[in-house]
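@channel sequence for tomorrow's demo:
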Amino acid sequence: MITSKIIANGILRAISFLVLASIFLYFIYLIQSVLIYLVVALILTLIGNPILDFFKRRLKFRHTLATIATLSIFILIIAGFVLMFIPLISSQGENLSLLKTAEIEKNITQLSDQVIAYLESHNIDSEEMLKEANVTSKINFNFIPNFLNSVLGTIGSFGMGLASVLFITFFFLKDRLLFIVGAKKLIPDTHEEQILNSVHKINHLLSRYFIGLLLQLSIVFVLYVIVLLIFGIPNLIIIAFLCAVLNIVPYIGPLIASILAAVLTMLSNLGSDFQTVILPTTIYVLIGFWIVQVIDNNLSQPLIFSKSVSSHPLEIFLVILIAGFLSGILGMIIAVPLYTILKVIGKEFFPENTVIKLLTKNI
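structure tokens (generated this afternoon):
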């Protein structure tokens, strides 16, 4: 028989659970930066494991020395990127204090007027429509200096975050065996072998995946540089790097990269004739980017990813597509690593399942 005391105790337990859950979620919110550091450090560890093994097996380094050498490679790569950006930052920093929002608005208006003139020359009556819309008057260009100042303000926190990530990565690499021993004590004996095999395979496949991702982005970066170099676009290294990084987001990233390249190409040629210089150059750059995407989507990306995670290219395509429908951009980014983890776990715990057998035959 349900009494008022039982009901009251149930309500109190429910309230206590909600309060504790709220406190836990709030705590996670407060330490979200630390969690991001841990995730980034884990990714760097997965990338660094093959390098660490190379130093130990081929060059006969001791474990600690191999860890230091691996971390030094990461630091040199990061320093190279920073040095690559210094010329752009210094040149823009000189002009930051002189940045006039009115000048920016004037440039955008000038570009808009050139577009209108081009359309009118082809008997497309869009001038009145654009003037009625009066886009430039509705955009507050004051956000640009504020945005740049906020970016500069994050440099200090980025430096602290980078130091934290490298520090965590060092101990992830150095004490990985210690972590495994500690994890064994927490694993139930009945599933110890399956769990440890899963962890080993996941570590191996994700290491290959992230190295493959770096290789794919490097190929795209070089191809973008070639395209921008052909058409003499200023700051081509920076633009190519940003567009290559956007390729991390499947399908949507390359589209954003193409739009970014088109806008920067048009602004870099501002003052030239729209019909004979700006428009043709922008079209040629977009065609070049499209060719790069054809090469990447049909050659480098399927080959690299299918080899790195032992999955068929069509399988990867469908996984990314489904993840995009379910979870948007974030889902598309984590789709392949998460799918790889699930495949490994499925093979270890349900090896006789027909579907899992089919999907994991190459693992």
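heads up for whoever presents: The two ends are 56 Å apart (CA to CA).
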